[in-house]
Amino acid sequence: MPAQSLHKPIPKPKLGQNFLVDDSARHAIADAMGNLSQRTVIEIGPGHGAITDILAGRARRLIALELDPSLAAELRFRFRDQPQVEIIETDVLKADVPALIPAGETADVIGNLPYYITSDILLQLFAAGSTGHIARAVLMMQREVAERVSAAPGVRDYGLLSATAQMNAQVANLFTLPPTAFSPPPDVFSTVLRLEFAPRFTELGVDPAGFDAFLRQCFSQKRKTLRNNLRAAGHTPEVLAEAWPASIPEQARAEGLALEPMAEFYRALKKLEPQP
Question: Are 242 and 272 in contact (CB under 8 A)?
Fold first, then answer.
């Protein structure tokens, strides 16, 4: 859901384009990035450049990734005299984000994420964050998705996306915008999150690929207990019984557990089961 300048937009529904037209909102989103004077910033879906225009005057380097060819051309013309701004016409999911960042540096990310690929983009950013390429992201997304990303264990919205996000970053829910902040107005409210990337894999003593796979097993069927989900994934009752931590109740469900006991369980299982 790209942002744009305040002139009347012409959206392309197939690209999920609902353009930000609230002036105070675009400044609030840019302000949430903090001091950018020495930072490289990657903007996802700049649209007509409503937020790009602000960032161009603040960031040391700004790289805007825009899928729509007409919008990319418009932005190249608009920022033609600002060498610190680079417009790349690309699908963000096909972009090699780490390759855009100078060697030895980290970048910050900002963007209004298209509703239909929000989770895919988040997973891409988590991967880049886990390798130390991204330090911070300020992202707008559908309110319901943002609530899942920021949910705490034990609440209804907590699930695989929540656990994955919080394994990779510290998540802060900043503010929510109504449909009237966009043109055309979407059918949903939009929430802005700030993610401070701080992967916890080393802290919790787990390997990223293996623990991510374990989390997917644990959350595979929301209505099932943790034990039943893991049995369905191929873990034997005997191994589960031997590895089961005292910190996890027998009838626990994954959505009720913090990351620490989940990591404890994963480490115990890994010791008992042969690795592929």
Answer: yes
N-to-C CA span, the chain:
41
Q: 137 forms bridges with which residues in the sheet?
A: 109, 195
Residues in the chain, total: 276
What is the CATH number assigned to the segment(s) 13-199?
A: 3.40.50.150
> With the C-alpha atoms ordered 45, 51, 53, 58, is the resulting torsion angle positive or negative?
negative
| CATH top-level class of 203-272 | mainly alpha
Per residue in 100-141, pLDDT (tens digit) is: 998 999 999 999 998 889 999 999 999 999 999 999 999 999
Number of DSSP helices (H) and strands (E) in the chain, helices first: 11, 9
| ∠ Cα 139 145 146 (to 5°) | 50
Q: Which residues of the chain does CATH 3.40.50.150 include?
A: 13-199
| CB atoms inside a 10 Å sphere around CB 93 | 12
CB atoms within 10 A of CB 181: 21
CA distance 18 to 211: 36
Residues 29, 2 contacting (CB under 8 angstroms): no
Considering the entire predicted model, what is its pTM? 0.90
Peptide bond into 102 cis (omega under 30): no
pLDDT at site 223:
87
Q: Is the dihedral of CA 214, 158, 166, 64 positive or negative?
A: positive
